[in-house]
Amino acid sequence: MTPPSRKGAVTHMPSQLGRRKHRTVLACVVALLLGLTFVGPAVSSAQAQTGAITGKITDDSGVGVPYANVFIKGTQLGGMANAEGKFTITKVPVGAYTLSVKSVGHATVEKPVQVNANQTATVNFQISEQAVKLKGVDVKGDVKIAIRKKDSSTKQIVTSEDLRSLPVDNYKEAIGLKAGVISQGGELHFRGGRGDEVLTIVNGIASRNPMRAEGVDLGLLAVSSSEQVLGGLDAQYGNALSGVINLTTREGGDKFGGEVRYFTDRYGEADKSFNNFERLSTGFGGPFLFPKTNYFISFEGTYTDTYLRNVATHREHRFLDFIRLGNRQSNSAKLSSKLTFKLTPNEKLNFEVIKNRSLDGEFNNRWNRQGFVHVIQDSTAPTDGTVTTRYGAWSYFQVDSSYIPINTAEHLPVTEEDYLQTAVTWKHTLGVGTIYNLRAGRQQWETTSDVLDRMPWEYQQLPNNYYDPQNRLEGPYYVTNGDYPHFERKRTVTYTLNGDFSKRLGKPADQGGHPHNLMTGGDINYNDLGFLRTNFPNILTGQGLYGADRDEFRFFNPEGSFFVQDRWEYEGMVLNAGIRYDNFSVGNQISSAEVRDRVKTQISPRIGIAYPISDRDVMSFHYGRLFQVPDRQYIYQGRLISATSRGNPNLEPQTTISYQLGVQHLFSKDIYGQFGVYFKDIFGLLTTVDQAIPGFAITIPTYVNADYASSRGVEFTLIKRFSRGFAGELNYTYGNATGTASDPNRALPNQGNLRDQFKPIAEQPLDWDQRHNISATLSLGNEKDWRASFVYQFGSGFPFTPHLREERRQNPDLINSRRLPSVSTLSMQGERFFRAWGQDLTLYVQGTNLLDAENISNLEPDLWPPGAINPKSYNVYYTETGRAGGAFLTQDQDGDGREDWYPVHDPRVFQQGRTIRVGLGVQF
């Protein structure tokens, strides 16, 4: 959807052509005499000493540029190209000239040409698009929608204007509004696939943490466009089972410009706020120090306590009595910078740096109390005289001096994540339809998660000794002492080198030819993986390492790929065919006794057909075989004996076989529709089975390729571009996603040391199997004064597995056999444009979940470590009573001989309620 945007002004300036020099008087006399004497021969000779120039002007994709101006510098000769970009200049005197091409919205290109007598010189031009900011007469035009006549894939587009005008916090929320996409818990599921099956690509470089398949996050003002490929992936896309997100970042223009935006939900004091939210974002760019060089820089800082605000305190600095600075429960900063060198019209070099950092505190309902705990110094045990600190009763008030203050939320882990990407890209257009790209990049992910910056041996806790069952207020459901028993350090570095080459072969179809568009390329990646995670970190194991459940490794592995694909146009039909070769190595650090094949290879064919029925209709079909290497944590983890699960270096790539049928229809110049049907079979998914550890007489859950799934569905998209004061978009998806498991860790121990003995024997609905999903957006307004954008979302209920209080083991027939209620939200963003102090200003009001709908987000949030409670309590409570929010069993209160429920009202169960933010933007 493209909402209204402010129009620039266009000034038409006539080209300044050179003038002929004046002849001397003597030359004029001589010429006149010769002309009078030899009239006939002179005319005949002049006609013989001329030639002609012809050619075609195309853009980067090889399509003709209509009505471009062509002229010979230093003369008054020239002309205009026709609708197909072709031109001819006749009666050009013999000689060497410079031919120049100009077209609005494109860079000016010049080429030398030699004109010979009675001959036609051919000069073809390829000109690149170039953003311009012009002044003068206001020119308004309709934005037309173009159908993809040669494409057999299914794509959804999110523009930079969408990200500015819609009430979304990041580009993933905007993607979640599209047909074929289900958003659940911050994860995007493309056409029924798992959340880790979507590959994010930024300017041609894959951005995926090989450890856990997470992609980069960018600020809203950093994104130029986002293209989602949900089906029909060409051979150039690999290591993605479900789809691809293609992100393009913004580049600077030839003049300095940008904007600053500020949003907040703080209306005075802290208690007059929804989530204590503030966001400052900016994006600006322009010409750099050197000629033909531009830059663009964007920053987005978001600071909020979130709707899951805990009772932890955060240091705050106050300036001028109303400016408050300091960390909050969730803090993130996203910085992006790009430097562009346009060396020639056909050569472009980009340097880019992306730096993200976040600092997030957790919310855990059982670790969210502030009060006082009784402390006892016990010297009775052990008998060596060591004094042991023991914690007793808890109280909201300090009963006596033996009660010390305790804020359990401050003893939860704080997670710090850092991301750094540096990249260099080179694009060179060699001729009409011939382009190659080279890219090199380095990406680094770092994650730390700990309590109060403590090292493992500094943690204060014993396993499950957080609760005193005596003298306890509100029962043994809340933690009253100790540190949350988790410590984690992860660092991943990926080096990438890739490139591609494309060339058009044969005559264009409009000239009676059957052209090919051949493309080939490949990539090489090298991963450096470091990992340390431990639960109960202050427990010393028999190997002298801290952590009762410890997993640690450092591994290196290379991988690469190569592809060839062709787009062949024949008699109005387009064939897209390709083949891809992928290569993955586990490295040489694991013993040969454990590895069957160190190098694994896959070949995946792709074939699609696009058939334009008319200039308004296109049908397409695509078949593809897709592969994805498992997250590296499932390959390398658990090499220590104390780990609770073990990676498998013999894992094979997971596989999807995909079919899709698509139809595009252009109803009018403003209204476009897209319809699709898809079928996917997915196998080789990960799960765990007990396997013996070589050299040890024990078994441990080990990851294997044993799960499978399938999905099928129907998608419909209707888009109306902005005209007559409004724009809109409607997306509908009917999907059916089933499989043997939703999570690779489903078969791990779930209660104590009990194994899930009953394995699924048939496909069941997956956790994200939302059968019906509808999203609608509506944008109203005019380009001068105001704009209002509304977003409505509806989804049928997600499945869940019912549990009973007396249950000992799970019945496999009940897995995801029931449905939660449907969910719906209504959000909006209003904008008021005005001008003050010589600047364009915008006032914003943004509201999410305006109807304050109570939508269930997570029926069973994490209750680890369980202590003395049943970790399935929330589920059992909902199954028995139909009430969500969480509860634990307590003593019998009504005399029926059964324990009664004690509700705890855990806010993690529900989505965020209504929020209202205001903002101010400045454009310059």
TrEMBL record:
Gene Ontology molecular function: carbohydrate binding; siderophore uptake transmembrane transporter activity
Domain TonB-dependent receptor-like beta-barrel, chain residue ranges per copy: 383-850
Membrane topology: Multi-pass membrane protein
A Gene Ontology cellular-component term: cell outer membrane
Upper classification of the organism: Bacteria, Candidatus Eiseniibacteriota
Official protein name in the record: TonB-dependent receptor
Ranges in coiled-coil conformation: none
Keyword match Transport: yes
Classification via SUPFAM superfamilies: Porins, Starch-binding domain-like
Source organism of the structure: Eiseniibacteriota bacterium
GO biological process: siderophore transmembrane transport
Record's keyword terms, sorted: Cell outer membrane, Membrane, Receptor, Signal, TonB box, Transmembrane, Transmembrane beta strand, Transport
InterPro entries registered for this protein in UniProt: Beta-barrel_TonB, Beta-barrel_TonB_sf, Carb-bd-like_fold, Plug_dom_sf, TonB-dep_rcpt-like
Main location, first listed in the record: membrane
Family the UniProt entry places it in: Belongs to the TonB-dependent receptor family.
Subcellular location: Cell outer membrane
